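Researcher: First entry.
Model:
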Amino acid sequence: MKRLGWLIVLAFSFCWTNAQDSISGATTASGIIKNGQEYNEYEDDEKIDENKIYSSSRVQQAASYPNMIEFLKKNIQYPEDALMNSLQGVVFVNFVVNADGSVSDVKIARSAGSSLDKEALRIISLMKYWNPATINGKAVRSYFTLPIRFSLK
């Protein structure tokens, strides 16, 4: 793989929502707004299941990776065959950010070609030490989807 000096990498992170976990109403840092009233869905720690994987609509603070854009720009290596074939596109990678900040269950949700997919998976494997999602200040497991754009511009 060859490093591409001016590789434009755009990554917009958002949590992967699970239809059965979705809720109606907007979320705030402290809870959910329904019918103009804000309330905290998690009043006590007993309702928080440490083995459950939460969707973005169920956490108060989404998982994040420190300096993600800089990390991606520094570490992505455009695959040689993708360069030769002018292959570009967005690879969507789904995974779980665990309560300890580790990553598991990594899968390609939408492919942009096998060599770009492999590079996206390699990058995710390098991303150690995530800030996990939280509910009431307690770290929880959560779904995360990271779209990685490979562009030759």
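Researcher: Second entry.
Model:
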Amino acid sequence: MGKVNFSGDFLTPGPLMAQGRPRRFPNLASAAAQMPFLDYVTREALATLILTPTGLMAYVPEAGRFLIHKLAVAAERPQSWATKQRKDVHQVLTLYTILHATDPWSIDHAASATREGREAKAFLARIRRGLEIARRQSGANLTDLKDRIERAAQSESL
């Protein structure tokens, strides 16, 4: 077997004010980028196997949560990261198309979880902005996704 190149980024939950700033972990001789709302996307993560020659167990976000988190991430990208924002929007549209057709409950479940956490109002504001960015960039009709998120937000006011 050939050499496997695998890399990853270290991320840690952090407040909006600290986004992107490294958080040092001296005991690990490492640092991690702080990402707002990471607790949302990693809650209910699923154990999965990464296919490598020796196998590697990892936790991945539930697809509905990843979809909604990507909306918030897209809204936070500065103009200098326009390429990454377009990639975020592409991932949102792809995931939404698949989940809408195969597992709409996962979207509703993830949407209902947006009202949890310390920064729920800020998170929802970014999700709404991300929806607008996705609509503007792609021309896609995201009314159903927007309605699902708004219904969940209204079901228990923030």
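Model: Note on the second entry: Residues 62-155 form one domain.
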